[in-house]
Each structure stands twice: as C-alpha cells, then as structure tokens.
Amino acid sequence: MGRPIVRLKDIADQTGFSVNTVSLALRDSPRIPQETRATIRQAAEALNYLPNHIAKSLVSRETRTIGLVLTSITNPILTLVAQEIELRLAERGYSTLFATSNGDHHEEKKVIEMFRSRQVDGMLIYPRAHRDLDHIRRLRQAGQPLVLLVGDMDAGVDVVAMDTRRGSHKAMRHLLEQGHRQIGLIDGGGERGNFEKLDGYRQALDEAGIAVDEGLLVVPQTHSVAGGYAAMAELAARGGGMTAVLAATDLLALGALRWTQENGRRVPDDMAIVGFDNIEFAQYAATPISSVDYAVGQVTELAVERLLGLIQAEALPEPEMTLIEPDLVVRASSGAPISGP
C-alpha cells in the first residue's frame, strides 16, 4: 500500500482550526497570527504533510519547473552550466528537471516529450544537431517557451549561446600571429552538421591567404581525452609539418597534449595546442593549455532571464538570438600573447 495522503482537513481536525486558516498559515499569510502559524506548521510536520503541487498546478497552470536537456552528462562545461542554471532558477522559485540525449536524435525527442508530459513551464536545450531543429521549432510554434543554448541565425527559436565560430577564429588568429602556418583541427562537430568551429578555422586561414589542407582535419572517434590522444596520433602519422593544433574541446586538447609528452614533442616549441571551454583541467595541465573561454555565468543568466520572460508573456514574441563573444585565454601551450598597441 502507498503512503496515506494527509489533507488540509486532517491538519484542521488535529489543531481545531478551519481548513481555510490552515491553508493560509501554511502559505505564511500575515493574516494569521504568528503563534497560530507555528502551531499549524508543527502539526503539519508531525502528520508528514506534503503540499499537493499537482493540484496547485492545475489551478495556476504553472508547475514552477524547467526542463534542461544536455547532450552529455560527462562534459565538464555542461556540468557547470547545469549547476549554474539550477542555482539561478532556484533563486527565482523554480525547480530544474535534468535529462541527457547522449548525442542521440531519437533520445533527444524522447526526453523533450517527457518534459512536455511533466508539463514543465519552459525548457532550456542543448540540441545535438544545431541545424536539425524541426521538432523543436514545432514546440515553439505550439506556444512552448524554450531557449536553445547553441544555435544559429536560422534557428527559428530563441537562442542564447557562445559564439563558437568567433571563438575558433580568435584561436586561429592567435596561432597565425605566432607564426604557425600548418595548423591541425580536431573537431567532430561536422558529423552532426555543427560546423561553427570549422567555419572559424577556415575563415582565419582564408584571411591569411592560406589554403585549407584537408589532411590537417581529423574527426576524433570519441569526444574525450582518449579521443584527443588518438586524433593527435593520426595527425602526426599523416606528416606534413604541422606545428600547431586547435581542438574543439579542452578534453580533446588534453589528449593531444598527452600524446606530445609521450612522443618527445615540446609544447609549444614543437607543437602549440589550443582548446575550447577553458575548463579547470586545462589551466592545471602539466603544460597549461590555452583555451577559448566559455562564459558560464553570462550564458546561464541571460538564458534563464529570456526563458522566464517567455513564460510570463501572454503570447510568445519573435525569437531573439544572443551570441556572446568569447575571450581567448592564452597560456603556455601556445606561447605568450602578441603585444598590441
């Protein structure tokens, strides 16, 4: 048998007050004397009373919950983002439901439908494929408040995200200014149609008058340290005089760094390395790794504010896109920064 449900009437019978008085007291209404509120709260705790949020949501049409869809639970930057979002929503009286798609399209649709069935007030989503968004657009068109945490100008839904294309371009400009001309790229985003980092890489080379060498592009087998290690080994085996590498995540960059250490390549003298996300591990690596910073605080604050604004709107406004320009944090793995005017 399940746990018996304690009703407001049970507390009223226990204390001798009316159901209305009990209800007001449990909502901490100033209309009820402090002593009476304390008596009623004590009785509620003794009876193990729990508020019926489902019933409340049916009346208010709000559940005060937000669904957050991640692509991976093991990605350190997504873990930080999830933590920040949960804290920011809690400050505003909302609870957060978490789910991960594990980079699978069908799983992404499944968890979004699960959130819909839970009647969340809104969603924050990292889509696995930044341009395969028809299922998410349909939700928006149906009136579901949601904000993507990655996306582009054609998303058709609200987006608050780091400008990773710009970040990649900045990293490449830095390496080019350091004198590197044959620069490898470790990036698996293209497999899902996520070309932002590759676009920034190509743009910087084009501006420098350097043709893209397809032999310097490698897709890692996994988005992990081990994947970066194997990808670096593959790039080295191709030859070609590569002197620098840009990795799409710091985990991949850590793997590349490990390969250089085991194979007698000095960093940055023989091989410069730049990563993405600026996670703590990059800063404290054996050779601290230069990295494109992910502004967790700024992204989460703006995304939460936009989503809550959509929830409170009588009708959803036109979608807005907010791209945050990232900073490049230069460390020992790519040499000293170029001094400017």
Walkthrough of the structure:
The protein has a six-stranded parallel beta sheet with strand order 2-1-3-4-5-11, sandwiched between helices. A six-stranded mixed beta sheet has the order 7-6-8-9-10-12. The longest helix has 17 residues, at 296-312. Helix 5 links the parallel strand 1 and strand 2. It is elongated. With 341 residues, it is α/β, with parallel strands linked by helices. Helix content is 43%, strand content 15%. The N and C termini lie far apart (75 Å). It has 13 helices and twelve strands.
Query: The CATH topology of the largest domain, please?
Result: Rossmann fold
Order of SSEs: HHHHEHEHEHEEHEHEHEHEHEHEE
The helicity comes to: 40-55%
Strand content: 5-15%
User: Could you say which structural class the secondary elements and strand pairing correspond to?
Assistant: alpha/beta
Main sheet properties: 6 strands, parallel
Number of domains: 3
Report mean pLDDT, rounded to a whole number: 89
- Radius of gyration based on Cα positions: 26 Å
End-to-end distance, in Å? 75 Å
Number of alpha- plus pi-helical segments: 13
The shape is elongated
